[in-house]
Amino acid sequence: MRQTSSIPAIQLQSTSARYGSPLDSPRGCPRITPNRPLILAAATKTVLGLVAESDDELRQTARQRLEAVLFLAREPLNTRKLSQYANLADGTEARTLIRHLNEHYDAVGRAFRVEQVAGGFQLMTRRLFSSWLRRLGHVPPELRLSAPALETLAVIAYRQPTPRADIEAIRGVNCGEVIRQLMERDLVRIGSRSEELGRPYLYNTTKRFLQLFGLVNLDDLPRAQEMRTLMAPATTANPTLSLAVDSFSPLADEPYTDSP
To answer: What keyword terms does UniProt attach to this protein (predicted)?
Structure first.
């Protein structure tokens, strides 16, 4: 009967020790012992660098989306709409990116920048080029208003919301036709009804009014004293306009906001 050979325990221990220990380095070369903390630190630095690079790319893409929206928009857009159209987190991110865009435009000397006007933001050329651009025919002609229309618009702007009776009391003439013309030009709109007898309509200025006059909101309207100084030549020749300026009352605390 065949006998099974027995392997001495000492031989098994020797083999285990041989294969369980690190391989010897080639003759003449020092043995390299891995430095785990150093490797971990290097790997962490690499990962963080990739994450930072990815964040920069995401911010750059977000700025490009916002810039594209502003470029195509034909009217001012508030931050809520900008964040919606450009797929941003919220209005705060939109404002931050607008600031970054303007810093970039100013640094490289662009002929345009993002301006805040009429309760929103719009990409606009700088005033320096306005007269030159007008010769190209792409800029709408300046809005020209008659003296009665300007007087009526001034009264509505400073006393809104105001009924027609108050406007006519200040101007001393019938203003129905002038108000209609201002509404056709989208400078005046009917806001609501008064609680007074007969519940007359109340008139307000529009978003287009703010846009044409370069105002962010109604708080940017000149104060009465400033208006007297600016319009001194006109009020001297036109007592009715002087009366309108003198009748300006403080603006409402509620600023103009873009409707949803």
So the answer is: Cell cycle, Cell division, Chromosome partition, Cytoplasm
CATH level 3 topology of 147-246? Arc Repressor Mutant, subunit A (1.10.10)
Give residue 44's pLDDT. 59
Q: What pLDDT sits at residue 245?
A: 47
**pLDDT less than 70: residues of the chain:** 1-55, 137-143, 224-260
Q: Phi and psi dihedrals of 136, rounded to 5? A: -75, -15
CB–CB of 79/121 below 8 Å? Answer: yes
Q: In degrees rounded to 5, what are phi and psi of residue 5?
A: -75, 140
CA distances from 196 to 14, 193, 203, 204 (A): 108, 9, 14, 17
Residue 130's region, left for phi above 0, alpha for psi from -120 to 50, else beta, is alpha
| 190 contacts: CB under 8 Å, gap ≥ 6 | 183, 201, 202, 203, 204
> Are the beta carbons of 98 and 113 closer than 8 angstroms?
no
